[in-house]
Structures are given as structure tokens and as C-alpha cells.
Amino acid sequence: MSERFFQQQHELAKLIERYSEKDGVHTTLIPSLYLIRESIITEPISRVNEPSFCIIVQGEKDVLLGQNHFRYGPGNYIVASIDLPVTGQVMKASADAPYLALKIEFTPSQILDVLRETETRNELKKNTKRAMFVSKVEPSLLDAVVRLACLLDNPKHIPVLAPLFTKEILYWILQGPNGEALEQIALEGSNAARIRNVIEHIMNHYNEPFKIEELADIANMSVASFHRHFKEVTTMSPVQFQKQLRLQEARRLLLAESTDIANIAFSVGYESQSQFSREYSRMFGFPPREEIKRLRA
């Protein structure tokens, strides 16, 4: 890495600290830009990761997607090209050297806008790529990220320059070694885009039972082909994907409300409270009643 690269990382770290005085995820004047700070190693946090790009400038994080771990720190970035249920944990952070990260959310239409102006990639690829990947930060990408973040110091330029810098960031990701995994989500008719449509359906109806044949019809695939492509994109089966959504929503309700556990189980789609408790314990390590006491404490 060049000296300029480390200087830019340092500049970005100082900017993140300046606009995030306390721990947590902070919105900014740029609607799609978020700054993240944590001064301690966190508990594992389960949530749906929206399509986004995240770069760490200090500390380290571990993200679990299905059974796949993604560990990354300074010099790396992570991309999720579709909505994915994940569990994330900050693994390296302290009061003196907090975890500092920057996240940019994007949409398939933004990817498509870049692709329309990129002649090198305009045909559908047969191979289906996983919808989450970690890559090395290249100087050209870091330079665009720094310029976008620095607009927070000059907000009058945000309306004109923020969309341009965001487009440039997406361009450099697409030009990188994992760019095809991002590209495939935006190209209508690709296998990954068809799986994206199914994921949208499952997320809107996560508490309802489904038949695999119905999901395959939405994807316009055979059942066997649908199963294969869904797992290639998400690392999970459709049933596992739905189960993670249900349990994540149940955990959110347990923390936010004083509702009966049985009612929560039924509200997220479980017909059996005992089955809900077993699967909840398997995913989070504690039965619902015990974990709610532990986390609230």
C-alpha cells in the first residue's frame, strides 16, 4: 500500500469520528451514506443486510451468511447485492481505537445506470454468483469514497456531486474481481435477478407458508434449477432463508415489546411454540425467555 493510501484511510477515519461522536449507526446529510462507530466488541447482531457497500478503516468485523463467514478489516470492503439475513459482530474495537466504518446503500437501478455506460459488460452471464463478497480496496475506489465522505464538510455540493461520486464508487466495484456478482443482480433476465424477485416475495410474505413450486414459478425456473440458483446466490435453501427472517423478526419483537412469546411465535409464522423455541435456541444460543432477560439486562 502506498503512503497516500494510508493517508486517505487516516483522513476517512478522522471524518467518521468527527461525525459519529457516540457508538452506533449514524445517518448523514447524504441520504444513502451511513457512518458506523463501535468502541467495544459487540454481541452478534442479526438483521437483514440491504444492498450496500461497506468499508472498514479501523477495527475488524465478522459477518455470517448461512454457514459462510466473512471476516474483514482495513484494506477490505464487503458488498451485499441483495437483501440478505446475516449476523454481524464487531471483533476488534476499543475506546482508544474504535471500530470505524462507512456504508453506502444502493439499488439495482443505480447499478444498471452504470452498466448502460460500460461497454465491457452488457451480456447475461450463465454462472450465478454469491450475493455477498469481500474484496481488496483499490486506490481508485478509496479515492472516490474519500471524496464522497468529504462532501459532509461542504454540504452545499452534495446535491450535484454525491450522485456522481456514488456512481463512480459503483463503477470501481463493477470493475473489480467480484464485479460480476454485483452486475448479475441488476440485469433483468439473469438467474440472479430472478432469485432477487423470489427473495422480495419471501420477505413480503415471510410469515406465510409457501410451496417450492410456487417460488420456482416466480423465478420462471424448474424446481431443481431454482433450488440450485437460490443456494448459489444466498448460500441457503428457501426454507432456511425464510426461517432466518422469521427468527430475526421474532427477536426484534421480543426486545421491543412485552408480548407473550406464544403470540410472537404465531405472528412470525410458527404453528408450534415448542418448535419456535427449539429453532430460536439453535440460531441465537439461548431460548427466547432466557435471552430476552439476558439482553435487556
TrEMBL record:
Domain of life: Bacteria
SMART domains (UniProt xref): HTH_ARAC
Residue ranges of domain HTH araC/xylS-type in the record: 196-294
One of the Pfam families matching this protein, by short name: HTH_18
Keyword Transmembrane: no
Keywords of the record: DNA-binding, Transcription, Transcription regulation
Protein name, UniProt field: AraC family transcriptional regulator N-terminal domain-containing protein
Natural source organism: Metabacillus herbersteinensis
